[in-house]
Every structure is written in C-alpha cells, then in structure tokens.
Amino acid sequence: MLKQLVLLICLLAFVQTSFSQLGFSHEIGVIAGPVQFRSDFGQRLNDKNNFKNSGYGIGLVHYLNFAYSSDCNCYTTYTYFNDHFKLRNEISYNKTQLEHNGEWVAPYRTTPEADQLRAHTGVAENFDIGTQIEFFPKSIRDFQGFAYKFAPFISLGVHYTYSTPEVSTTYGDGDITNPSNFYSFWEPGSVSDKARGGWSIVTSVGTRYKLSILSDLMIDLRWQYYGHDWVDGLNHQLNSNKYNDWLLWLNVGYVYYLD
Known about the structure:
This protein is of the alpha+beta class. It has helices at 2-21, 47-52, 80-84, 112-119, 140-144, and strands at residues 24-38, 54-69, 74-75, 85-99, 120-135, 150-163, 166-169, 196-212, 215-226, 246-257. It has a single domain (2-257), classed as Porin. An eight-stranded antiparallel β-barrel has the order 1-2-4-5-6-8-9-10. The longest helix is centred in the first third of the chain and has 20 residues, at 2-21. It is elongated, with a radius of gyration of 22 Å.
C-alpha cells in the first residue's frame, strides 16, 4: 500500500509540475464538514440509522487554474477548456462512529441476535488522496473578474483510500475474532479490523462564492463510492448487502489564489 501511495503522490507532483511549466496558476484551500457514512451497519434506508452513523471530514485541496497564467499575471489564450475546467488535487481524512440502528435492534426485540447487533460498534476511518476534474458552466474568467458572485460546478475523479476500521463488541467475551460474539446469521469472517487500501470514485456538485480578488468560499456535496466493502470493518453476505460502502460529505471550504 505504501508503495502505491508514494507512486500516486509522485504522479500528482509530476502532473502539477508539468502544468506549472505551461504557465498555469495555482489555488490552495481547506475543506471541512459532516459526513454521512452508508455501510453495512444498521438497517438500510432507515433515516435514524443514516443520520446517527455520521461523522466528519477535513482536507487540503490544490487547484490548477488554466484560465490564468502565473508567468505573466495575465489570462491564458482562450479555449473552452481553460475557461470552464479546473483540476483539483486533494488530501483528506474522514472518521465516523458506527452502530446498528433500525428495526432489527428495536426495543421490543429481545433475541440473542438483537443483543449481538446492539453490542457491535465500529469506526470507519479513511485517508484519501486523489484528483478530480471540475466543470464550471459559467466562465471562470468572468467569475475572477467579479462579473458574478457565484460559480457553480460539478466534478468527477478518482481517489486512493487507505481504510483503518475499528471493530468492537461487548457481547460474550468481547473477542472480535470469535464469530459467536457477532450476529448469528452472518458467515464467519464477516467482521475484520484489517487495514486496506483501494480506489474510490468521487463526484460532487457545489458552488464557489467570490470573497475577494484572491479568495473564494466554496461549498459542495460529495458522493464517494468505494471499490470494496470492508471500509467499515463489516462485510456480511446477507441479501441486504447489495452495495459497497459509500458516503455523502457536505463540506465548506476556503480557497486562496496563489498567483
């Protein structure tokens, strides 16, 4: 995993350096906000389960701005791509406390299986690094020139995610390697706190708000779908397990123009 992460960092640095030599400008920023983690914990599509299994995310972002050149402090030659796209590189972190909520742990359920679910908790903890391409329907040049205050965008990209889940239970002897301490209908091996790396797809919709010549406020809603189902430390094989883990992240950010 470490070798893959280093290679990805080197690739991002190479891409950034290559674009820098072509005279494009840079932006840096910070993002933070609440995360709603959709996993195998709890009842799927249950509002209480979805809202209680929420955490937070923070990150650092870097943008390549193709519309403006740092070499001459002037706009680049106009093309549709330069005036409507930015490349976003990101390093981020998110963490969510997980528990079972919904019908199967309702107070009237007094079976051993219900007790096993109530006793089972976890933590989804993820480190991300990756790149997204952002599309701005409105002109980036006009936005930088204060022609309007808001610049909506959509994005699509790929992140490498390193997950370090935590698993715990107060049922039985509390041993997470003992399958009898977890839900009886799950197959043995459905729970694991093993750290894993993998790719994820990231897409978002948001907008920027122009604060000053050199700064913007940003808000976006992200959907991130992971390439495996072990991000939360739980991968049971019941029919209700239809999808890999995924999350929604509403973040607010501050972006500063370096050039």
